[in-house]
Amino acid sequence: xxxxxxxxxxxxxxxxxxxxxxxxxxxxxxxxxxxxxxxxxxxxxxxxxxxxxxxxxxxxxxxxxxxxxxxxxxxxxxxxxxxxxxxxxxxxxxxxxxxxxxxxxxxxxxxxxxxxxxxxxxxxxxxxxxxxxxxxxxxxxxxxxxxxxxxxxxxxxxxxxxxxxxxxxxxxxxxxxxxxxxx
Length: 183
Fold this sequence. Notes:
10 strands, disordered N terminus
């Protein structure tokens, strides 16, 4: 991957524009936020591939945005980059899909159907967020306060052309991941 003048790309026709914002404080840890313009599905899959290269056990990533904005496409790009060749679907009805890929146990959650945050507890998911599994969570906000803050939050939204992803690191593990994604 080349990075030149703020634009990261593999192929000149598949550009992903980056705007990074760093906030530093003497007393607070560094907060890292990156906004990406994703021109098409290929760019969204590339975001997933970049995420895959930076994953580490115990990482929790929330994926938010309206229906059809590309949350599952990011997960598909991540899994493909890790070598998974099977079908990747949103676990809207099953709530979770589990993948053993590369060196990781990856759990893909979708809480869209939750009507009450207590359903997260009733489903018994707490043990899956054990510090060993990678958890990619669509609609994490539906679990309410039962799910702790994600290490990395990816907010996707429709843009005039394509989509836009705002990625924010909330923990040191998330900051490490996002820095690695940007190299």
